[in-house]
Amino acid sequence: MAIHNNRQRLKDIDNTGFGPNSSIEGGRLVNPDGTSNLRKRGIPIWERMSVYHTLLRMGRRKFGLFVLFLYTAVNLFFACIYFLTGVEHLVGGDGGASYFEKFMEAFFFSSQTLTTVGYGRVAPSGMLTNSIASIESLIGILIFAIMTGLIYGRFSRPRAYLLFSPNILISPFKDGKALMLRMATYKNNNLTDVEAQITLALHVKEHDRTVTKFYPLDLELSKITSLALNWTLVHHITEDSPLFHYTKQQVMETRMEVMVTIKAFDDHFSNVVQQRTSYTWKQVVYGAKFLPMFERADNGEYTILELDKINHHELVNMDQYQNKTVGA
Amino acid sequence: MAIHNNRQRLKDIDNTGFGPNSSIEGGRLVNPDGTSNLRKRGIPIWERMSVYHTLLRMGRRKFGLFVLFLYTAVNLFFACIYFLTGVEHLVGGDGGASYFEKFMEAFFFSSQTLTTVGYGRVAPSGMLTNSIASIESLIGILIFAIMTGLIYGRFSRPRAYLLFSPNILISPFKDGKALMLRMATYKNNNLTDVEAQITLALHVKEHDRTVTKFYPLDLELSKITSLALNWTLVHHITEDSPLFHYTKQQVMETRMEVMVTIKAFDDHFSNVVQQRTSYTWKQVVYGAKFLPMFERADNGEYTILELDKINHHELVNMDQYQNKTVGA
Amino acid sequence: MAIHNNRQRLKDIDNTGFGPNSSIEGGRLVNPDGTSNLRKRGIPIWERMSVYHTLLRMGRRKFGLFVLFLYTAVNLFFACIYFLTGVEHLVGGDGGASYFEKFMEAFFFSSQTLTTVGYGRVAPSGMLTNSIASIESLIGILIFAIMTGLIYGRFSRPRAYLLFSPNILISPFKDGKALMLRMATYKNNNLTDVEAQITLALHVKEHDRTVTKFYPLDLELSKITSLALNWTLVHHITEDSPLFHYTKQQVMETRMEVMVTIKAFDDHFSNVVQQRTSYTWKQVVYGAKFLPMFERADNGEYTILELDKINHHELVNMDQYQNKTVGA
Amino acid sequence: MAIHNNRQRLKDIDNTGFGPNSSIEGGRLVNPDGTSNLRKRGIPIWERMSVYHTLLRMGRRKFGLFVLFLYTAVNLFFACIYFLTGVEHLVGGDGGASYFEKFMEAFFFSSQTLTTVGYGRVAPSGMLTNSIASIESLIGILIFAIMTGLIYGRFSRPRAYLLFSPNILISPFKDGKALMLRMATYKNNNLTDVEAQITLALHVKEHDRTVTKFYPLDLELSKITSLALNWTLVHHITEDSPLFHYTKQQVMETRMEVMVTIKAFDDHFSNVVQQRTSYTWKQVVYGAKFLPMFERADNGEYTILELDKINHHELVNMDQYQNKTVGA
Question: Which one of A297, B63, B181, C129 is most buried, counting C-beta atoms within 10 A?
Fold first, then answer.
């Protein structure tokens, strides 16, 4: 089959950290958010999960609910203990008659202890209750310390805040075609020394087995000194490009995947930031070109970057390229 | 026009992250504080603003006012809630007669809860008020955690603390001229492995369109091992320099912009720090040279760096350079 | 002796930071956890120990016990002081009759002060007791600050979370043999730009003295762009390899040690992480090869990495390699 | 004079960040602790001092006293305010008769508010006192946040913990001499990828002016992969060395200064650490060699590094080197 012969002269690489054996790998390799499409097994979950990092990367709303849940759960736990060891040792309260009122008094006393607010209107008396309250306030302080660390960690976690175009385009470029994707930072951060790296993964048949082949894609510009506006990554599909030898149909058959890694220095964080993403063949638009996404302000004093236009493109006629392959 | 011909042999670069199309870019490219002169649009403000980083970079006084405002606002909010749900559930207070006095009691109780000081002279009673107080003290702890993170972030944010001379000078240098600017660290920090990079932006006419051209400017010394005293960046205007081909008048017409990036290792932070700035043609002083800004202490035992002399220069006669262009 | 002659043409290195004099060095050089097998002496322990880092690297359970112990100790200390300076100045309590009850009241008051919960049911009165409580609450706040820092430090300490195969294998490879070891990340973290470096240490006789010789071992692949699945480090034992010239017996006699250093960028921490380990000749399995440790999920949509199979290998017949040396 | 001629063929460098003009520089360039021997002037002290970094680098004892002083000062300040606005609004106290007792009650109330312990035995009443207490508790929380940040910053500040030999030796080496200095880490930290850089500064006469010349000194080994034991930096004084051309007397006259910079990766901090030091001609010992500073443990299972022997050396006869210059 032609695909196989064409590929022979191309140099594939084996330093991607993924294996070449397609038959035991499942689905796409990298998820759109840049994580590997992989599950780990064989050691207990608490050893293979990093609780801290899970909480760090959790969405804002989910994190809020988690905090509220934790607070309620710990207070319920201690309220039960105070209730069981004798709520009468919590002196000073309203002294409600019902069990529910007594339990709630224990619950609120617990919350006052955990947060160290300690009004003292209700206060512990006796050895046992005092001991429990003493432990609870220590736990409160430790939870607080953990919260402080988590919240600081969430805020200060270096991120590139890059927005990628949802589509990859096959656009006319010079005398041929190029694969293009576009990106921009969507926050008020400054990236400098920005490097891009694109790896193509193809699942091809070789000696009756399906193997995964990886190819680095050369970029017209793979490093820029500063990312102020948007940046369009351009891979010119020349004869040296692996894509030159595939038709649109073949690209689909090989379940093409384009993995993108961006590395930059962010002076918000004074740190290196990295963001990865991945496109599959389903996201390729054949025969289109990106339209500008920035314009001059009306008063002429600054430039406006329109982030909602990140994927703004128009279809172009690619008929003059008689060759049916994706490239040339 | 001569400008265009002269420029032909110079190599301009397109890896600056700014676009070449002057007609849609507005004003200067980089602000004096090093940020890009750019606004983003098309996604909601809370997604394109990093609240954390805005608070991190806010001036000290403004940050203090923000904290005071936040504290008052949250307390007012909870005071309203306590007031509406029945201030009589806050037992123990002075029991002022007027609504205002009652509201203030709720306000102060709120502040005692939020800061977890919880004197308890005024304390909540009843399910509803206890629940609100319980939530408020949690919020207090979380706000406190955020404050701790913010304040630590503000202190520990790696910065180069570089002071740049407000002017760029065109000074006599060797047999010709040089573009010079001066910098020094103004805090008690030590920078090592300091690298400087200067990019020149010119807005020139090309085929009836104004395009922005970027040129890297070669420096006599672009890297020093340690920045103890001041450092003068010197770009010798030789025939290879883009500035060689422009007269003073033309520099103004092309709205010249000089973008400076300094990168160094700071052993205060044990981190890479970066600082950027930008000069426009209005800041160029033609025919001047910097005067020394350090001297020996009277007792001869240390050196004194006089930071107020960062821009200290004297005018020099440049008449012997008959050529009217900026360069030789 | 043959060993010595063979070695002559190999280039050993002296930049490992370990000395060449085997007779004064003891035991293995690097421990399995990557620390140097070394004790320091000659300066007081508090100067040569980093308390912070010891607490940072302490196991979770041990750290919890340490916190509990510290809390109890500080409270006991202050309880003694309150008791000695007159427990009657702690007004409001249950006023237990026995010394023990009085002491415990002081103890619980101390814990309420240290955690700043301060119910106020028991409160200090008089100059001396007030002063002590005032100092204790300051100490409480400082301990709290230290705890927050420690807990944040423990969470956010950049680590590679690498799992190494407990054994090194001598496997068939190409026309000869190779030394192989395997690794994988066991948490949900992503390593990129992963570099491996292996150094071989041999204790050999030279002019009647035993000296330690260090050799870098060439790897088939010493850098990968991303570590998604497992990575097998392969050192092909060619004629250029120091191992080529040793028999199994000689390897034991030279007390071979294989030191492994992995350096990578972790985008959890946006930081460089490093992990080291070391194998001795006792961990070498002669004639075996690793078996796959990942498979496709049943639904075909992701890959499963089985961490308990990190050391999964089968013995292979190495008889065709007639040469008795470790290498081909 | 011979010194000047000899120097001609040596290449001095001007990228050290220090100026060449000796007559306006004072004393040594770099202090033993690695900071520049430099004072800054011309801008207000609060702009040129980094309070955070000063507190970060302050000795442990001094920092403790600073915290105690700050705590007392803030409490005194607020005690005065409570006293002046009417101490009778602090209800509940012992109600001491004397002014002093009243003031102290205000002082202790202040400390209970600042630390948020808030027993409530003494509690504020009335608008004004409540407002002040509300502000104070906010300030308390902010100071606490600052303390947490400072203490974490102090603990987590990346440092190399390097101990340098107090002396530089001129030792016999190969067929000639070498300048040697020794270092070791004194904490339980692991340094990898350690790089050393030595710069020699000489104040020499040139055309009737004294100028400072800087020379990089070549090292036998300038980079090691890991610093486990001690490391001796060796500069072989060959004909290419600037020191080759100076006699002992001339070294003193030129007020020789040897500036040392060590850069390494520390896996405690997972960060690059840097330490600098400087030696003057007074610290040079002519004709001596370092003695070993580590030995095998009695049980043979680990190595002992004796830190008190960092400067351990014995004098050696250098008479065979007839040449009177420092070098060969």
Answer: B181
Q: Tell me, which fold does domain A45-156 have in CATH? A: Helix Hairpins (1.10.287)
CB contact under 8 A, A149 and C151: yes
Judged by CB atoms closer than 8 Å, whether chains meet at B144 and D149 is answered as no
Query: For residue A226, what is the DSSP state?
Result: E
Nearest to B305 by CA among D22, D40, D50: D40
Question: Has this prediction a pTM greater than 0.80?
Answer: yes
For C46-156, CATH number?
Answer: 1.10.287.70
Backbone angles phi, psi at D108, to 5 degrees: -70, -35
Hey, how many other C-beta atoms are within 10 angstroms of the C-beta on A84? 9
The residue that leads in pLDDT, A260 or B8, is A260
Where does the pLDDT of residue B180 fall: very low under 50, low under 70, confident under 90, or very high at 90 and above?
A: very high
Q: Based on the number of CB atoms within 10 Å of its own CB, is A44 exposed (0-12), middle (13-18) or buried (19 or more)?
A: exposed
Smallest Cβ–Cβ distance between D120 and the set A116, A120, A148 belongs to A120
Q: Residue ranges per domain, chain D?
A: 2-38+160-315, 46-156
Residue ranges in D85-124 assigned as alpha helix (H): 99-114
Pairing of strands D303-306, C38-41: parallel
User: What secondary structure letter does DSSP report for C321?
Assistant: -
Taken in order B52, B54, B57, B63, the sign of the CA dihedral is negative
Distances in Å between the Cα of C120 and the Cα atoms of A67, A106, A125, C127, C133 are 28, 18, 12, 17, 12
Residue B225 and residue D16: Cβ atoms within 8 Å? yes
Fold of B8-38+159-315: Immunoglobulin-like (2.60.40)
Instruction: Pick the residue from chain D with its C-alpha nearest to B183.
Output: D17
User: Residue D8: is its pLDDT beyond 60?
Assistant: no
Query: Mind telling me how many Å the CA of C39 is from chain B's nearest CA?
Result: 27
In this complex, the chains that touch B, judged by 3 or more CB pairs closer than 8 A, are: A, C, D
Task: Kindly provide the residue ranges of all beta strands, DSSP E only, lying in D161-297, ordered along the sequence.
Answer: 162-164, 168-173, 176-185, 191-206, 209-217, 223-227, 231-236, 257-266, 271-280, 284-286, 288-290, 294-296
Would B8-38+159-315 and B46-156 be classified into the same CATH topology?
Answer: no
For domain C2-38+160-315, the CATH class is mainly beta
Phi, psi of D232 (to 5 degrees): -100, 120
User: For residue C51, what is the nearest residue in chain D, using CA coordinates?
Assistant: D155
* Residue position matching structure tokens 């955990």: A114
**Pair B205, B1: CB distance under 8 Å:** yes
